[in-house]
Amino acid sequence: MGLWARITRVFRASTGAALDKIENPELVLQQTIRDMRDRVPELNNSVAQVMATERLLAKNNENLAKQVVDLDSKIKASVKMGRDDIATAYIGQLQQAQLDLERTSAQLELAGAASKNALKARDNYVLNMKKRTSEAMQLISAAKQAKLQEQLAQTMEGFNIGDDASTFNEMREKIERRVAAAEAKLQLGTSSVDSQMQDIEREAMDIQLQDKLLEYKSQMGLLGAGSGNATGKQIGAGAGASKDEDVLEQVIVNEANDGRSN
After folding, report:
1. 253 plus 134 within the same structural domain
2. Which region among 24-28, 205-209, 249-253 has the lowest average model confidence (pLDDT)?
3. 71: CB partners within 8 A, 6+ apart
4. pLDDT tens per residue across span 124-155
5. I want to staple 78 with a disulfide (CB 3.0 to 4.6 A). Which of 83, 105, 185, 186 is the partner?
């Protein structure tokens, strides 16, 4: 292989590679669609010219047919009038008109076939254009989807899942430890001795308040005899309670008194 051929091959390969990089399939397809649509008016003009030729030949053919009929009538009229010279001249014109009519009829037949072929070609082109346009639109949509997928892939490549996963796990572990510690503190606070003693003190206070209320009602004569007996019975029943309960009540009263004195 010669040096020039090798240089040409390298140049063509480099140019092709560069074009492949800068060539945008979506733009190329859109331009192809525009080019196909731009050819439709040109095709319509060509078909119109063919059809115009056909109509012109049809008009000439009609005029020649009328001329043949008119010359035939004139020939007959000349013969009746005994004007053979004029009849002979009309016969010459008739023969020429008949030749022109035959030639025009043949041309008209060819023009009619040409018009049909032109219309068929135009219709086929329009159908093919619509088909290609639909395919191009599908390809453009696929190209856009591929572009989005490429961008997503690039984004995912730059997204380090391992590091972020470890960060999430670390933060989750810290939060779970804080929640567990808070729950433990809350449980210790609610189950401590001080809390239990506060509950007992509140209960003792309520008992004292109820006793004080009964005392006021008794002084004001608001308690009847039945109520007094009931109160005595309650006191007797209280005296008959177990020793442990008496001790617990005494402890409660003492603690309540200590709390009020403090």
Report:
1. no
2. 249-253
3. 90, 93, 94, 97
4. 988 888 888 888 888 888 877 877 777 777 76
5. 83
Contacts of 8 (CB under 8 A, 6+ apart): none
> 116 and 9, same structural domain?
yes
Domain count, the chain: 2
Q: Are residues 119 and 14 in the same domain?
A: yes
- Residue 200 structural domain: 190-261
Considering the domain architecture, whether residues 120 and 242 belong to the same structural domain is answered as no
Q: Are residues 100 and 8 in the same domain?
A: yes
Highest mean pLDDT, choosing among 129-133, 160-164, 197-201 = 129-133
Tokens of 62: 């009609």
Give exposure, 41-79, as e/b (b: 16+ Cβ within 10 Å): eebeeebeebbebbeebbebbeebeebbeebeebbeebe
Burial 103-132 (b: 16+ CB within 10 A, else e): ebbebbeebeeebeebeeebeeeeeebeee
